[in-house]
Every structure is written in C-alpha cells, then in structure tokens.
Give the backbone structure.
Amino acid sequence: MARTLRVLTLLMGWSCVAIGLFHVALGNAALPGAGSAGATVDSWGRFMGASFVGYGLAWVWAARQRPVPARAVRWLAAVFLLGGVGRLLSLAVHGRPQWFQIALAVIELTLPPVFFWLADAEERALSGRPEAAAAGR
C-alpha cells in the first residue's frame, strides 16, 4: 500500500504539471468549446494553468518525502475533491458540459477517497518497523 501511495502521488503530481503546462501554452484552445471565448477567459485559463502546475509540484514534493506526509496528501486530495464539487455546482447551475468535462468530474470525485484511504500507508508501514523508519527519513 505504501508503494501504491507513492506511485499514485507521483503520477498525480506529474499529470497536474503536464495539464497545467498544456493550459498555459494553449490558453482557450486547451478547453473544449472555449476557442472563441475571448481574451479574458484565455488570460484566466492560462493563469489557472500556472496555478495547476504549482499544485502538481506540491504533489511531486509530497511523493518525494520519506515517508509520504499523510497530512499533505489529505489536503491536496481535498483540493482536488473541491474541484469536482465545483464541477457539480456548474452542472447544476449551467447544465451538462462537454463530455470530457464529465469524465474529469468523475475522476475528481472518485480519486480523492482513494488518497484519503492510502494517505498514511507509508507512515503506518514505517512506524511498525523502527529500523525502516530511521532509514526512510
């Protein structure tokens, strides 16, 4: 379970970095249906892309710690879950978005509970073996 946590945390981090860079580079073209949304939406999207790069780097930082800090994983997963809740609010207020946005919402609502469950896996594993805990720090 500790290895699964580390791999998923690292995968989450690099995925967010890649997605964020994609949005910084492409602006409106990165959003299905937003190609003609104008300069304001383009500016906002590129800014949010940069923010997502930072968010991804926080995941990468967490994955590189020994042990992976459960508290950081829970906070980062909570932020991701909040994004999914935001998509649900948008669905309720504005209706059904493009299909890919629905797929992203499913990921954003189902992956955080996995991280909440795995968050302290490495801390638990190391606390059960004092020699491993000393070597892992």
User: Anything to note?
Assistant: The radius of gyration is 17 Å. The chain has one domain: 2-136.
